[in-house]
Amino acid sequence: MSFLDFHFFSESLALTCSAHVILPQATTRQIGMTSGKQRERYPTLYLLHGLSDDHTIWTRRTSIERYASERNIAVVMPAVARSFYQDMASGPKYWTFLSEELPALCQHYFPLSDAREDTFAAGLSMGGYGALRLGLARPEKFAAVASLSGALDLARRLREVDKPFARIDRKEWTGIIGPDLKAPADSNLWLLASKVGASPEPRPAIYLSCGTEDELLSESRTFRQHLDTLGLPLTYSEGPGAHEWGYWDAQIQRVLEWLPLRQS
Question: Does pLDDT of 28 surpass 90?
């Protein structure tokens, strides 16, 4: 595998930004690593970080490079600050960057497939929300998406913005969403799922996972019920674990095994 610290200018963000990119490399002499068959274009997982993290976190806290090598898949890990994957009311357009500009840039610079069947997203906490939003708002582009301990209920967070336990306070949410604190319909996972469920267009496969000791468990359970009602393709997993990296390291391995990767 090769690891790239990718620095580039984003038109959407109007700034130079960074992403970590892991690319498969066909080798015969690399000790301790699995090498897959060389391909002209590789399937790609867009792997998203949580609220307090950045694009470096998955390589620092897990063995994602080794796991990706075993599946012969590329991984793109962007940085979106504390944007909650939104086009911010008083800040950069991180949703446009993530959903449109970043895939196009990566497919231009790297040997990544642009086929829907080869394009996936996953993330933890805030990134779990971002990954599901990608799949449900862009079902024509993403074949499968996964949420690990996802902070899925944006509307609830905006209703409870003044409560002591809020991770994002009113001032910060105002900068993200706007002073009315009402998220647009294309930010609401429940509404997006209903739209996909009523559409004849392809539906992304969805993986939901959360630890039973995680304070966000109820959000995954509630969203699971919603997806089941809509008949959307869902794999659901919950088991012992809290909001921590031991759980996410184990789960990202399951996600990579679950992805519907096509044979080269």
Answer: no
pLDDT of residue 264: 57
Place of tokens 């796991």: 67
The helix (H) or strand (E) run that includes residue 221 is: helix 217-230
d(CA 4, CA 216): 33
As a whole number, mean pLDDT of residues 81-107 equals 96
Q: Domains in the chain, ordered, with CATH? A: 2-155+184-258 (3.40.50.1820)
Residues of the chain above pLDDT 70, percent: 100
| 104 in Cβ contact with 78 (< 8 Å) | no
- Torsion angle, alpha carbons of 80, 258, 206, 209, to 10: -70
Give the residue among 96, 108, 85 at the shortest CA–CA distance from 6. Answer: 108
Amino acid letter, 100: E
Residue whose entry in the numeric block shows the structure tokens 């939104």:
86
pTM of the model: 0.96
